[in-house]
Amino acid sequence: MALPTVTPTRTVAAVPVTDLPSRHPDAWRAATRHAFLGAVRDGTIPVAAFDTWLVQDARFVADLLRFQARLLARVPRPAQAVLAGGLVALVDELAWFEEQAALRGLDLGTPALPATAAYAELLGRLDDADVGTALTALWTIERTYLDAWSHARPGAEGYHAFVEHWTQPGFADYVAGLEAAADGVPAPDADAVFTEVVAAETAFWAMAQDSAW
């Protein structure tokens, strides 16, 4: 009796999330080396542009808080601690935004601009994505933020405290924790969600820059 022919199943190795920036260097550079960040570093950014970004980022953080709270209920047990810690940090971050807005006379109730609304829509779609994809997206969001503000160091006079706030060691530790969580549940197509998130980040910088230039 002849044995049946078995076709080997091809296994695609998971991509560590830290490899993603080097797989998409142009998109990564656009998101983390944007002219907006260089202008914060050298002091040429118009105050109105920075304030626009600050208000819109506060709206984004509120959207991210809701997304992350929903994701927490879906992730495997080993990933829960880092996401829960991140949620506490986001609550504190919103309070910090409120303090900064009061000092600068800004209205955090300003409507979302198109790039902010599009980012919120992306987060909404990620609610329906598999856990691995959602975790890769969350890591990409925070890693982009960390690398982008690190590029703006030390920040010009008037912006140094902001840059320092967004590059503190505790934030880097949090990003490292998200890396472990994302690698623990590989995304089916990490490259696709990575490029979509960094495109949203690039659009967010451009939105603020274009508001005053």
TrEMBL record:
What Gene Ontology molecular-function terms does this entry list? Answer: thiaminase activity
EC main group? hydrolase
Residues annotated as binding substrate: D57, E93, E142
Give its E.C. classification number: 3.5.99.2
Q: Which residues form the Thiaminase-2/PQQC domain?
A: 25-210
Q: Where is the active site?
A: E201 (proton donor)
Q: What GO cellular component is one of the record's annotations?
A: cytosol
Pathway it works in: Cofactor biosynthesis; thiamine diphosphate biosynthesis
Reaction catalysis annotation: 4-amino-5-aminomethyl-2-methylpyrimidine + H2O = 4-amino-5-hydroxymethyl-2-methylpyrimidine + NH4(+); thiamine + H2O = 5-(2-hydroxyethyl)-4-methylthiazole + 4-amino-5-hydroxymethyl-2-methylpyrimidine + H(+)
Matches recorded under Pfam families: TENA_THI-4
The family database entries (Gene3D superfamilies) matched by this protein are listed as: Heme oxygenase-like
Q: Alphabetically, which GO biological process terms does the record hold?
A: thiamine biosynthetic process; thiamine diphosphate biosynthetic process
Keywords from the named record: Hydrolase, Thiamine biosynthesis
Q: What does this protein do?
A: Catalyzes an amino-pyrimidine hydrolysis reaction at the C5' of the pyrimidine moiety of thiamine compounds, a reaction that is part of a thiamine salvage pathway. Thus, catalyzes the conversion of 4-amino-5-aminomethyl-2-methylpyrimidine to 4-amino-5-hydroxymethyl-2-methylpyrimidine (HMP).
Give the family per the record: Belongs to the TenA family.
Please identify the protein, giving its name as recorded.
Aminopyrimidine aminohydrolase
